[in-house]
Amino acid sequence: MPPVFPMLTVLSMFYYMCLRRRARTATRGEMNSRRAIESNTRALPINVEIVQYAKEVLDFSSHYGSENSMSYTMWNLAGIPNVYPSSGDFTQTAVFRTYGTWWDRCPSARLPFTRTPSTFCSQDYVELAFEEPVYPTAVHILETYHPGAVVRILACSANPYSQNPPAEVRWEILWSEAPTKVNGPQARQFTPCIKQINFPTNLIRLEVNSSLLDYYTELDAVVLHGVKERPVLSLKTSMIDMNDIDEDEDEEKFGCGMDTLNKQFSIVTLREWPTNGYFDKLPYELIQLILSHLTVPDLCRLAQTCKLLYQHCCDPLQYIHLSLQPYWARINDTSLEYLQSRCTLIQWLNLSWTGNRGAISVSGFSRFLKVCGSELVRLELSCGHFLNETCLEVITEMCPNLQELNLSSCDKIPPQAFNHIAKVGSLKRLILYRTKVEQTALLSILNFCSELQHLSLGSCVMIEDYDLIASMMGAKCKKLRSLDLWRCKNITESGIAELASGCQLLEELDLGWCPTLQSSTGCFTNLARKLPNLQKLFLTANRSVCDTDIEELAANCTHLRQLDILGTRMVSPASLRKLLESCKDLSLLDVSFCSQIDNRVVLELNANFPNVFIKKSFTQ
C-alpha cells in the first residue's frame, strides 16, 4: 500500500517555502536599508522647487470621450485646471471609460487571469509629459468628481522630448496603494506622500482602479513639484525594523520582482543537494498544484533553489495561462526569449501594456509567437503600441486556434493591417476599441469570422458606413451575444433593423453617444421587440428616448440588468416604475441629466426598489 501523507505534510511544505523566502528577503539587507532610508528621510532644501502642470498627454488606455472632441477626454489633463475647485460632472475633465463593477457583470465580461499579484490592481492608465525634468518632491492630482480611483503613480527615466532615446528605460513607483472608498463625490486635491528617486523625470504615469466608485471619476489637472538638482538626504534617519516591511512590496516596486527576472530565467547552474527533503516524497502533480499559486517572480526565485524545483518551475504546464501585464515595465525581447521554452503549451497570454518605447521589437514578438503560438486560444494585447502589420500577420499565421483577440487602444496599427484578422475563422471575441480599423477590413472580418460572439467597435472613427457593417453582422454573425458600438457616428434605424433581425441572440448592446438614432423612427421599439434576451442596453446621451421605448423594454426585455438612458428629456417617472416592476433583475439604471427625473423621484424609486442602483449625476 502506498504511503499516506497527512495534510500536515503539505502544510509544512508551504511553511518551509515561506521560511526560505523570508531567509532570501533577509539577505537583501543592503537594498532594503537603502529603500527604508529613501522613503523615511527628508531632503535638505538646496535648490528652488519648480511647479509645473502637464504639458501633453502622451498615452492612455481608455476615455469616455470621442476621438474627435475634447469633452470627457484624457487630453483635458494637459495644462492648467478647467474646473477645480468646483465639483460635479463637467465635460472639460478627463474621464475613463468604465467605473464600478458593472462591466464585470455583463455578458461580455472576460474571465480573469490567475496568478495576478495582489499588489497589481490597475485597470486604466494615463501618461503625462512635463516641460522640465525634475526630481519629484510632490504630485498633486486635482479630482473634481468621485475621487479615489488613482492607485499608483510612476515616474519614467526617459525624456519624451529628448532627441536621443536612452538605451534603457526605467520606471519607478512614486506611490502605490490599494483602492479605497472615498466618502462623497466632492472635488479634492490628492497629494500622496511620494518616494524620492535617483533620476530626474518629466514623464509621470497615473494608474487607476474605479471598481469601488459609484460613478465615473473625473480628473482636471496634475501638478508636478520638483527640483533640478538631486536632493541631499538628511543623515538623521529613523530606525526601522526590516521585518515590518511587506514582502510583497518588493514585487510591487518591480526591482526585486522583475528587474532581475531575465537573469533568473537564464540560470542553468544549480547547487547539488543530496536530498530534496519532503519534496522527494510528494507526487509530481501535487508539487505542480502547490506551485500553481505562485506568481511569475516567485517561480523564478524558487527555480534557483535546486534542480527538482527548477524542473517544476520550468514545466510548460505552469504557463498554460500567463499574464505579463502586471510586469509591463520590465518585459522586453529578452524576457520573451527566456520564456519561449516554458510557454510551448500556453493557451492564454496577456501582453497588455507591455513593449512600448522599444522594449519589445516586432522581431522579438514574432519569434515568440512562432514558438509558442500554436496552442494560443486567448491573446490580450491592449495598448501594445509596438504592434504593426507584420505582427498581425504573424498572429494569424502562428495562432490557428485563436478564439479571443484584444487590440483595444492599439492605435498605431495601420488600417490595412486589420485585413489579416479575417484569416482567423475561429475567432469568438474581437476587441477593436479605439483602433484604426477601416470598413473594408471589417467587412472581410465579419464575412469570414462567423463564429463571433463578442465584438467591440467602440470609438472606431474610420468606419464610414455603420449601416453596411450592421447589415453584414445580421447576415453573417448569427451567434453574436455582445456588441459595442459606443460613439458610432452614422448608424441609423436601417442598420438597427438589420442587426435586430439577424442577431437575435444579442444580450448586450452599447449604442451610447450614437447621435443619428432617433426614437421617432421606431428603432428602439424594434430592438426591444426583436431582442428579448437583452441584459445590458446603453442608450447614453440619446435625448430622443421616450416613454414608449421604456414601456417596450418593460414588456419584452424582462431579463434586463443594466440600462443607461443618460440625457433623455422624454422619459417620465411613471414609465420607469413600469420598467422596475417588470425587470426584476435590473441592477443598474443611469438617469443622469434626465430632465423629468429629479432627486425627489430618485429617492422615491430607491426606496421602492432598493436592489437597483439608480444613478443621478449632477453639475454645480
TrEMBL record:
GO cellular component terms attached to this protein's record: SCF ubiquitin ligase complex
Superkingdom assignment: Eukaryota
Pfam families according to UniProt: DUF7885, F-box-like
SUPFAM superfamilies per record: F-box domain, RNI-like
GO process annotations (BP): SCF-dependent proteasomal ubiquitin-dependent protein catabolic process
Keyword Lipid biosynthesis: no
UniProt domain F-box: residue ranges: 276-331
Keyword terms of this UniProt record: Leucine-rich repeat, Ubl conjugation pathway
Protein name: FBXL4 protein
